[in-house]
Amino acid sequence: MDSATSELPARMPLDDAAETGLKIVVVGGFGVGKTTLVRSVSEIRPLNTEEVMTQAGVGVDETDGLVTKTTTTVAFDFGRISLNERMVLYLFGAPGQERFWFLWDRLFSGTLGAVVLVDTRRMSDSWYAVDRLEHHRTPFVVAVNRFDDDASSFSLDEIRQALSLSDDVPLIDCDARVRSSGKRVLITLVDHLYELAMAREMTP
Amino acid sequence: MIRKPVDIGFPDRLYMVTGGRSRADDTTFDLVTLIVSESAPTAGLQSEHVRILELCRHPTAVVEVSAELRMPVTVVRILLADLHAMGRISARHPHGSRPAASLPDSVLLKEVLHGLRNL
Ligand SMILES: Nc1nc2c(ncn2[C@@H]2O[C@H](COP(=O)(O)OP(=O)(O)OP(=O)(O)O)[C@@H](O)[C@H]2O)c(=O)[nH]1
Ligand SMILES: [Mg+2]
Question: Does the residue B3 lie in any domain?
Fold first, then answer.
C-alpha cells in the first residue's frame, strides 16, 4: 500500500560511509500535516526532540550574575532519508507560527530549502511562513495539503494570489499521507533548487 | 560564577549532566553533523558520554543523538564538545556549515534528486 500506515523502524543505523547530512524544513500552521508528510517519506519513524532557546539575550551581564534572559523549549520532529551510502537527508517539521521564529533561524541555517504546507481552510496560517522564508532568502515550494472535508477547493491560481506568491515559486497539490505524493513534493523542491543553482552557475 | 539551573532554563537533571554549562563554546555541531565514536566507552566516563559512544558506533546525526537520549539539542552539543575534546568522537560536518557557507551547487543537488527519484 502506498500510504504511510505501515510501521517504520524506530532505529536503523546509517551506512558507515555516511558523511554528508542535508536538511529540508517543512513548515506550516498547526495540524496542517507536517508530521504526516515527514512520516510518509521517512525511512525511520519520525523522532521528536527539542531545543532550549535563549531569547532576547541582550543586556546580559555574565560577570555580576544578573541573568535576565528567558528561555523557551521548542519541540520539533524529524525523519530521515538515506539518499545513497554517503548522503543522508533529514526532514524537519517545524511549527510555522510567529512565536517560533527563533527556532526557524536555527533550523534554516544551512538548509537546502523549505516546503510550506498549506491548508486552504486556514490559508492565513501560511502568510508568516512565506514572509519569513523570503526574508531569509531560503528557497521554498508551497504544497497544498488537500483535506477531505475541504469544501472551498480553491484553485492553485487562487491560492497563489491569496499568498502573493511570485510566479517562480513552485506550487503543487499533495496528500501528505501518501508516500508517492510526499516524494513528489520533495522532488519539486530539489528540482527548483537545481534550477536556481544552474542559473547561478551560468551567471559569470 | 555558578548559575542556578533556573537561569539557563534547564531542569535540574540536565543542569547536572552538563556540569552547569549552558552552551558548547568552541566546536559547534550542526543538527545534521554526523557523529562517529573513535573508541569504546571506558570505565569512569559519565553515563551520558557512554550512551553517546555506544550510539555512535555507526554515524549518527546530532539531532538523532538528542532524540535517543531524550535531551535537548542544546545539552547534547555540550556533551559532544566534551567527547570531541577528549578525542573520543569525530564529527562529519555537513556541506556548507562553515561561516562562508555557499549555496548548494548543482552537482550536489543532482545527486540529491537522483537519490529521491530512486526511493
Ligand atoms: N484527510 C486528511 N487528513 C490529513 C492529511 N494530512 C494530515 N492529516 C491528518 O491531520 C492531522 C494533523 O496532521 P499532522 O501531521 O499531525 O499535522 P502537523 O502539522 O504535524 O500538526 P502539529 O505538529 O500539531 O502542528 C492528523 O490527524 C493527520 O492524520 C490529509 O492530507 N488528508
Ligand atoms: Mg506535527
Answer: no
